[in-house]
Amino acid sequence: MTKLIRLLLLVGCCLSTATVAEAQISTSGGIPDETLLNRYGLTLSWWGRSIIDGKRDTVLFVTADEQNIYMQSSSGILTTFNGETGRQLWSTLVGSPDQRGFPATTNDEQLLVTGGMQIYSFNKDTGDLLWQLRSPEHPSASPSINESQVAIGAIDGSVFAFDLRKVRELHDERMLPRWTHLAQMWRFKTPLATVSPPIFTGETIVFASEQGIVYGLFSENKKLKFQFETDVRIETPLGSSREEILIISEDSRLFCINKDNGRTRWTFSSGAPMRSPARVIGQQVFVAPTREGMSCIHLKTGLLLWEQPRAIEFVAASETRVYASDLNGNLLILNRGTGEKIGQLQLRHFNKRINNERTDRIYLANESGMVLAIREIGSEYPSFHLYPERRPILPLLVPEEGEEPPMKDGAVKAVAPADEEAKENPFEN
């Protein structure tokens, strides 16, 4: 009996040692081990560190668009990386140190950042200051920008729209931010604070009030186009796709409405509060009700496709996979069609995670300023989800006579019957 107990203890020690060894090999100096990533068809694209004062500073916000990664620290330092190469493009102190701010927002050329009452616009590739506005009231969320306007939501319920051309003229004449009011196009007042950045869509601008009302206005003259009302408050930021607005109300319901006319397409009830905005990838909507895991819903019908009880936060998605966080900070790898777990990576130290609706890249960061970029093996060029037309046109390399065309790393040559049609991604239709 004594020998049996000793044998069991020895086996237990060996298993414990193996578990510790696996945990240690998963990170090397905080960077995931490439062998472990490769096991799940992933690779570390790059890693970097933002400019930060390690003694008193922490990373507050990490955001991304199709080109760059933007890291904002608690002291107001903004660091920009190229999303594909990891090259640090520029860094700057936005406004005065330790001012209240919100996550950065961008369009094709400009990056907007708030610092107290000030709105700063930078060339997102060079860091040059393009202009600076003073918000008439304290902002309640990040500003929004399109090709012709800047919109700012405020804590008093106001939404202000500014003419971008006039803003640039005033900046060139060195009249900003003092004469900001000369560029103001209109002001629209709602009962309570706006809960998220206004959304530009064509000739319409859409925003929500905490009172539970979503407004759709003509962006040029603030004429009311539609008004959508819920029965309770709205405190979760709006989600959106190319044609839809996703609204989460405090009674645990998700509404999908048309961007142009506000008509309800469908309603989904989760049975639990949803504190993060709905994320849209192709024809799938991802929401994470509190303590209920993550749900995948069909964008056009509102039907529940699958549930994954371990996932609590959407991180990224490729054509066949979804990446999500669990309660322990692990990065879950899920089958996009069924929600079944494929594997997980122990990356709890990287707790700042971009909810990437733009591309298939996985971006993770921590409060001390380290950022990682992970991609699937063979995916040298990112897939663009929200704006596929923004993907750069790649040169077509024509092979010489008798040569095989070049293939991506990790690709497998397949021979199909001549009459077989190319299959489309089933999740995009």
TrEMBL record:
- Please give the superkingdom of this protein's source: Bacteria
Q: Which SMART domains match?
A: PQQ
Q: What's a Pfam family this protein contains?
A: PQQ_2
Q: What keywords are assigned to this protein?
A: Signal
Q: Where is the Pyrrolo-quinoline quinone repeat domain?
A: 76-221
Residue ranges of the region described as Disordered: 400-429
Signal peptide location in the record?
A: 1-23
- Entry protein name: Outer membrane biogenesis protein BamB
